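Hi V.,

You were right to ask for the full record rather than a summary. Here it is.
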Amino acid sequence: MDEVEVVVAHQERATLRVGDVFLKVDADPARTEVEVEAMTLAPVPTPAVLWCRPPVLALAALPGVALGRLGKPSAASAAAWAAAGAVLRVLHDAPLPAWSGAGLDEKAASLDAECTWLLTNDVLPADLVTRNRELAEVALRPCTPVFMHGDLQVAHVFVQGDEVTGILDWSEAGRGSAMYDLSSLTLGHPEHVADVVAGYGADAVDLDVVRAWWSLRSLTAIRWLVEHGFDPAAPGCEIDVLKAQL
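Predicted structure:
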């Protein structure tokens, strides 16, 4: 191999690429266990597990490219976005896993703590935080749980042409909200919501809740992103999402 590529690295985990192999190193072995079990159960394309020796999980590279990146326009076709919606519906219609993901009570507590931090530290204007928190409350309605990916950001969905070749990063999977997954997939890409809904099925989508999760996910992510070396103020990222919500 010519080189080792650092895909992502922070205090909790790191992912390295060596040729066609990805090595995921996670400080929490429970997350690795969830990831392997979820990929085994999920009726959708996932990377092949080459071996697992905690804290390291080795995965085969997926063909194709990421559906998009937060903060950048997606080069993928409308059909590819619709295919992502269709694959997600297959996951959500699958039998529930035995374990739960983050519950609504946990999400509500996180929202309260993170909004307090944002305001106390004067990170964002008070009206921006307050209005988005009001919107975010809609996401905390009780819902029927589904097999949720739990971190379905657009970079975790790989496509080749108009076909989905696989979904990455299952460590947050569990029983949870379907609208949370849909919001994660479309965060920062509102122009593709209609494509995703077309593939997923409009009968099962509550757009008000999807948009509410955009606010909640963005508000609760900012401190973590800053503390782990990412920039939520980059164009098109979390802070711009909050502004666009108004």
